[in-house]
């Protein structure tokens, strides 16, 4: 079985002081580097539809209003190898035009080049979904791909 499109096409991460975040059509991933040896009981993580709060050993790492809404009861966090916290948020709006430009409303914005690459990737991911028999993982896209690219849904098949 082949790997999911987002794994084959690579990530477009946005670096932050505490780690990085990236997105697919459906999800936003947050990776936070924590001190080696961190235990789950050292972590406090609150995931709400439009708000996130994360602290480790009593120190606030991340807190604020998310860029867009998420499905509250589908958000998860895990502690991996006692040194990385991975948070997965399910986007409420899951179309290619919903490319988050920042993680929080006023923080952790992707620079213009990264934002452009994120939008390209989401557009290719949308094309892959619409055309499951084709492999778009190595494709290059140019032209008007903002807001998810052109809409071909009204064309006759």
UniProtKB/TrEMBL annotation:
Chain ranges of the CS domain: 14-104
Positions of the UniProt region annotated as Disordered: 138-157
Listed GO MF terms: unfolded protein binding
CDD domains named in the record: p23_NUDCD2_like
Coiled-coil regions listed in the entry: none
GO biological process: protein folding
Ligase recorded as keyword: no
Subcellular location: Chromosome, Centromere, Kinetochore; Cytoplasm, Cytoskeleton, Microtubule organizing center, Centrosome; Cytoplasm, Cytoskeleton, Spindle pole
InterPro entries, per database record: CS_dom, HSP20-like_chaperone, NudC_fam, p23_NUDCD2
One Gene Ontology term, aspect cellular component: cytoplasm
Keywords assigned: Acetylation, Centromere, Chromosome, Cytoplasm, Cytoskeleton, Kinetochore, Phosphoprotein
Assembly behavior: Interacts with LIS1.
Function: May regulate the LIS1/dynein pathway by stabilizing LIS1 with Hsp90 chaperone.
Entries under PANTHER family matching the protein: NUCLEAR MOVEMENT PROTEIN NUDC, NUDC DOMAIN-CONTAINING PROTEIN 2
Listed name of the protein: NudC domain-containing protein 2
Organism, scientific name: Corythaixoides concolor (Grey go-away-bird)
